């Protein structure tokens, strides 16, 4: 039911009445679906002002730097909830009771192994393949193993697919890393927590299973929480679009992984570390800031700016606090952190960045923590994909469990008008 009305007046045509809806938070939306019948499309490349769906999962206020998951602020979740609790919240809409949490943890733990045959998929890749290339392949391949849970119209199949994806992403991520190292892949261990298990599979070997540092496990878990969901970003919109055709959830998540890979999106965390390496020293910062401001130079300050946040990304604040905690607890004095802080200070005081409301985003500090944990740079976006899986799945499930239509945008055509093939 429309809350208000809008009227579109196009010269030479009758006014078109359009319904306007209000959400519980955020801007009103104008329902433009009726325009097609009037022979008119909207035009919004990059979807700067387009709502693709109605959702109850995550709310972002870009002006105020607010991020809520099912109404809970991200800084409170990062401090008080663990990653699996956040997964439950995103999927179910409410925080779990102690009993529900224990059951969910146990269910996830019992799905962390992957089919032994999946190991053979890795042999087709070069050892130096980019980890995201392998993740795109092996996650999509999961659909070849789970014919028992691919009926997207069956709520139980959707539930088991969600569990399998959340449970297996860390296992696959660690397998990708071990493959690149030429080391044996490690099996998950059920006595470990989700993030302890991931670090175990990443860094232990059959020769020696060292105890997992609680500091590193907590930092890893918080990084997963901070990446868990972010409304209709490029990769989540990709998952929704793939899902709207009826594709199975594993294929949809593989599509999301592919979209996340780009340096303008989830690939930015890897790009930040490479950028800091390239800058090298505080004395070079001014030169790189000038490059970022130069319209003729494609260089952008990685980890800065955001489509929605025109204030500090609330995740970046928590990430920076976690960065300080982890480096202090580990006694690491990372010159790249010093460089990043100086870069942030200079950029944020520069009129170009201030006028455009360009602030550090979630990717600016995450790489420094990941490096401190021992994660290699090329694995950073795989970590992002692992953390984002519950968000992708929650949005996919929200769409599929309600009425939806196949996503099929239109266009402004400016190509040649109809012409005949020349007679020979
Ligand atoms: C993520 O959408 C999400 O929610 C994504 C994400 C999630 O959790 O899913 O938050 C994760 O992707 C974070 C963003 C990571 N990407 C980067 O850090 C790459 C660097 N950032 C830029 O590429 C850029 O800021 C984007 C892609 C993030 C946002 O681009 P927009 O919204 O399309 O903004 P824009 O390109 O139109 O920029 C507006 C102006 C432009 O200058 P003018 O044309 O107005 O003169 O700001 C400039 C841009 O050139 N600008 C930058 C800049 N970011 C924007 N200039 C220099 N360095 C930058 N980083």
Q: What is the general shape?
A: globular
pLDDT < 50 runs, ≥5 residues: none
- The pLDDT mean sits at 96
* Percent range of helical residues: 40-55%
**Beta-strand percentage range:** 5-15%
Describe the structure.
With 424 residues, the protein is mostly helical. The protein is built from 17 helices and 6 strands. It has helices at 74-80, 83-92, 98-109, 118-122, 131-141, 155-181, 194-203, 214-226, 234-243, 249-260, 268-279, 285-293, 314-330, 335-348, 351-355, 362-373, 380-400; strands spanning 4-8, 16-21, 29-30, 58-61, 66-69, 72-73. The strands form 2 sheets. The chain has a 3-stranded antiparallel β-sheet with strand order 1-2-3, with no helix packed on it. A 3-stranded antiparallel β-sheet has the order 4-5-6. Strand 5 and strand 6 form a beta hairpin. Helix 2 runs parallel beside helix 17 and helix 6 (155-181) packs antiparallel against helix 17. The chain starts with a strand and ends in a 24-residue tail after the last helix. S-citryldethia Coenzyme A binds next to helix 16.
Question: Topology, pairings included?
Answer:
Elements: E1 4-8, E2 16-21, E3 29-30, E4 58-61, E5 66-69, E6 72-73, H1 74-80, H2 83-92, H3 98-109, H4 118-122, H5 131-141, H6 155-181, H7 194-203, H8 214-226, H9 234-243, H10 249-260, H11 268-279, H12 285-293, H13 314-330, H14 335-348, H15 351-355, H16 362-373, H17 380-400
Antiparallel strand pairs: 1-2, 2-3, 4-5, 5-6
Helix pairs in contact: 2-8, 2-17, 5-6, 5-10, 6-7, 6-17, 7-8, 8-13, 8-16, 8-17, 9-10, 9-17, 10-17, 11-16, 13-16
Bound molecules: s-citryldethia Coenzyme A.
């Amino acid at each position: 039911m429309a809350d208000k009305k809008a009227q579109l007046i196009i010269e030479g045509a009758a006014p078109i009445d359009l319904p306007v809806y209000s959400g519980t938070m955020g801007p009103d939306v104008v329902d433009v679906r009726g325009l097609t019948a009037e022979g008119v499309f909207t035009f919004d490349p990059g979807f700067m002002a387009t709502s693709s769906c109605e959702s109850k999962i995550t709310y972002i206020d870009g002006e105020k730097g607010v991020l809520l998951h099912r109404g809970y602020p991200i800084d409170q979740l990062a401090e008080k909830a663990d990653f699996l609790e956040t997964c439950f919240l995103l999927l179910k809409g409410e925080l779990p009771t102690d009993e529900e949490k224990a059951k969910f943890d146990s269910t996830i733990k019992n799905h962390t192994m992957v089919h032994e045959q999946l190991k053979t998929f890795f042999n087709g890749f070069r050892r130096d393949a980019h980890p995201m290339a392998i993740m795109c392949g092996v996650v999509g391949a999961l659909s070849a193993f789970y014919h028992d849970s691919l009926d997207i119209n069956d709520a139980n199949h959707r539930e088991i697919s969600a569990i399998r994806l959340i449970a297996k992403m860390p296992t696959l991520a660690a397998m990708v890393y071990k493959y690149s190292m030429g080391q044996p892949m490690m099996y998950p261990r059920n006595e470990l927590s989700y993030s302890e298990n991931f670090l175990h599979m990443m860094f232990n070997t059959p020769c020696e299973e060292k105890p997992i540092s609680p500091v590193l496990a907590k930092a890893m878990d918080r990084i997963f929480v901070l990446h868990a969901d972010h409304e209709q970003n490029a990769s989540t919109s990709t998952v929704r679009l793939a899902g709207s055709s009826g594709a199975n959830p594993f294929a949809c998540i593989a599509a999301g992984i592919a979209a996340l890979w780009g340096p303008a999106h989830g690939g930015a965390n890897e790009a930040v570390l490479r950028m800091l390496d390239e800058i090298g020293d505080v004395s070079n910062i001014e030169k790189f800031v000038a490059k970022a401001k130069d319209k003729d130079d494609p260089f952008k300050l990685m980890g800065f700016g955001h489509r929605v946040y025109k204030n500090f990304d609330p995740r970046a604040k928590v990430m920076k606090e976690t960065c300080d905690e982890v480096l202090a607890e580990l006694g690491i004095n990372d010159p790249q952190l010093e460089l990043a802080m100086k870069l942030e200070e200079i950029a944020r005081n520069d009129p170009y960045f201030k006028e455009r409301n360009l602030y550090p985003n979630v990717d600016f500090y995450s790489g420094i923590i990941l490096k401190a944990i021992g994660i290699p740079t090329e694995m950073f976006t795989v970590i992002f994909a692992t953390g984002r899986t519950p968000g992708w799945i929650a949005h996919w499930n929200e769409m599929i469990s309600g009425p939806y239509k196949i996503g099929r945008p239109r266009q402004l055509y400016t190509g040649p008008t109809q012409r005949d093939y020349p007679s020979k």
